[in-house]
Amino acid sequence: MGNRETLAVFVKELKVVVREKRLLAILIMQPIILITVFGYAFSGEIKNVPAVIIDDDSSVASKQIISAISSTEILDLRYFAATTSEAVEMIKRGDIQVAIHIPEGFANDVLNKGKIEVFVDESNFNVAITALNLIERISSSLSRELNGGISVEQRYIFTTKTRMIDFIAPAIIGVVIQMLGLILSASSIAREREEGTLELIMATPLRSVDLIAGKFLAITGIIVVDIFNVMLISHYLFNVEVRGSILLLFAVQLLFLTGSIGLGLAISAVSATQLQGIQASMLMAIVSIFLSGFFYPLESMPEIARLIAYFIPLTYANIAFRNIMIKGNGLDVVYPYVGVLVFYTLLTTLLATRLLRRKISTGGGS
Amino acid sequence: MPKAKLVIENLTVRYGEFVAVNKLSFQVKEGEILGMLGPNGAGKSTTIKAILGLVSFEGRIEIAGEDVSSVEVRRKIGYMPQSFSLYQNLTVEENMRFFASIYGVEKSEMSRRMDELLRIAELERWKDKLVKNLSGGMKQRLMLACSMIHDPEMLILDEPTAGVDPPLRRAFWEHFRDLNKEGKTILVTTHYMDEAENCHRLIVMRNGAKMAEGNADEIKRRALGGELILIDSIKKQEALRILKSFGFNSEVVEDKIAVLVENSAKTLPSVVEILRKHNLPVTYAETKKLTLEDAFLKFIGGENG
To answer: Which of A56, A352, B60, B133 is the most buried (most CB within 10 A)?
Structure first.
C-alpha cells in the first residue's frame, strides 16, 4: 500500500495540469520570460568596457597598440595608471574591468618576444573573455605587421564584484520556485474542493500522506522543468556560470521547492476557493521578491527591510544559490542557510500534512 | 432477521453553534434499500458525510461491525455524492482507473471491472472522451460506475437522480434494484415519493432528527396515528353519535364521516356492521388511501397533511 496510490495521484495530477492549457502556458512561459527579460536588461552587449592602460614603454609600438585598442568600441580606455598594482586596485574597486600593461622595453623585445599583460576581472567572465580576445587579435595583427611575436599574458583578478545578471539569475530561480510552487500547490487542493472531487477522494481509503506525496511529486516534476529552462537560458544566453557544485545547487533548489509546495498546500487547506489560494500565495511571492534581496544585496537594504528579510525563506534560498553559483562555495559555507531552509521545509510540510489530515480524516471520537 | 450493515447510534453533528444532526439513531439491515426522506437542511447529507468520515461527530457509527474511524472501512462503501464531482479534464476511463487505484482494486481485476461497468453504464463508446464533454446523464452514469469500481458491500447514494430525466431515473432505479438483488445494501436519499416507494424502509428526517421510520405503509399510518375510513349514512349525526359511543375517533369531514382506526381494511366491516345493527344503512364506505407525499408533508410540518 502507498506507492500505487501515490503514483495514481501523481499521474492524475500531471494530466490535469497538462490539459489545463492556459495554466500550462503560464507555468512554462513565465520563467522563460522572466530570465530572458532580466537577462537582456542586465547583461547587455559588451561595449565600452572601462579599461586602464599602464604604458611603461612609451614607444611607437606601444602607442600603436593603444590606438588600435581605442579604435574599437569594446574597450573604453578611461585612465592611465602608473603601476600595475594601482590598476589592480582599480579593478578590485570596480572602477574598471580590464587593465593592459605594456612593460618597459616592449618596443625592443617586440621583434622576438614582446609581451603584454592583461588583467581582467574574473567574476565578469564574459567581459574578460571578450577583452582578452580583442587584445589577442590586435597583438597578432601587430605582430604580423612588425614581423615579430607578441604574447599576451592573462592575469585574472578575483573580485567579489559581479554583473547584475549573475546576481539576479540565482534569485530568479528562487522566485520561480517560490511563486510557481506556491501557486500550483495552493490551487491544486482548492481546485479539487471546488470541483467536489476532494470530498469524493476523502471518502475513499486514500491516506492524506499518499495524496500529498502524489501532488508533491507532480508539482516538483513540473517546476524542475522550469528550473532547467531558467538555468539553461541563463547559462547559454547570458553566460551565467555555476562555479560551485551543480549537484549541491540542485539539492538546495529541491529543498526550497519542497518547502514552497508545503506552504502552498497549507495555504490551500485553509483557503476556501482556488482564487483565494492563488491570491494569498501571490501576495506571499510579491512581498518575498521585494524584501528578499532580489535586486540588491541584503547589506544595502534599509534596516527595517533587512529585519523583515530575515523572516522570508526566499532570502536564505537566494543567499545559498548566489553563494554556490557566484562564489563557488560548498556546503561548508552555505550550511547555515541550508539549515534554515531545512527547518522551513520541515515546518511547512508538517503543517500541510496536519491541516490536510484534519480536513480529510475526522473519524468519530478520535 | 438479517444483520445490521450500518449502525448509527446517537449521532450528533455540529457546525459551530448549529446542530445539523441531533441524536440520530437508525440501522440499515444487510440487503435492504433504506431511503432517507426530508426537506433540504434536514440533515440527510450531513448524516452521510458523518458515515464517510467527512465531518467530525459525536456518537457511534459502525459498518459491518467496524467503527468508521478506520480508513479501511471505506473500502466497503461506494459513495455517489449529490453534485457532480469527477475530474473534468480526465477521460471516462482515466477517472475510473484513478478511483480503482486509490480504492486498491487489484491490477488483474481492474480491466475486467472497468469493462463491466462501462458496459452497464453504456459508456463504452465514450471511454476516451474527456468528462467535461459528456452530457449530464452520462456524467451521472459515470459517477455511479466510479462509486462501484471496488465492488463495495454497501452503496451510499445522495440524491442520485437529482436533475436526471424520467427515463434515466427509471433505468437508475431498475439498476439499484438489480444491485440490491445481487446483495448490495443501499442507503439512498431522495426527494421523489415514487422513488421512496421503492425502498424497503424509510426514514423521515426534519431538523436533524428522525421523525418517522418504517416501510411506506407504516409511515403513512403513523402520519395520522392510524388509517382513515370514510363512511356515510342517511342520518349522519346519529351515525356519528353511535360511532363515538363505541369509542371510535371520528368526526365529520366535508360531507363524510372520517373514522381514524389502526387498520382500515380490518376495521371497515365491523364499522358497517355496528351501523347496520342500529338501523343506519351505510350509503358509502371507503378505506382512504393516504399518499406517501401526504404523510411526508405531515411529518415535516407541511400544511396539507
So the answer is: A352
